[in-house]
Amino acid sequence: MRKSRLVLCPHCDREQRVKINETSVKCKGCKKTFRVKKENGKHPEHFWHNPDTSHHF
């Protein structure tokens, strides 16, 4: 079972690896803090519709 997940920073679109139950994340790129929902280890829906990030997969 994975204990971390990827979230996307809404400010700089950088991926962050965070703990599954973590909801407040500080971006390593832009140093801003943002909140994310718990999503059972999956990318949020807007991740797949963003052309800057969806091409990685």
Q: Total number of β-strand segments?
A: 4
Beta-strand percent range: 25-35%
Tally of DSSP helical segments: 2
Distance between the termini: 21 Å
Structure class: alpha+beta
Q: List the domain count as a whole number.
A: 1
Q: What is the overall pLDDT average?
A: 75
Query: What value does the Rg take, in angstroms?
Result: 11 Å
pLDDT < 50 stretches = none
Reported for the largest beta sheet, the result is: 2 strands, antiparallel
The percent of residues in helical segments reads: 10-25%
- The quaternary organization reads as single chain
String of helices and strands: EEEEHH
The general outline is: globular
Q: How would you write the strand order of the largest sheet? A: 1-2
Give an account of the 3D structure.
The protein has 57 residues and is an alpha+beta fold. The strands form 2 sheets. A two-stranded antiparallel sheet has the order 1-2. The chain is globular and about 25 Å long. The two termini are 21 Å apart.
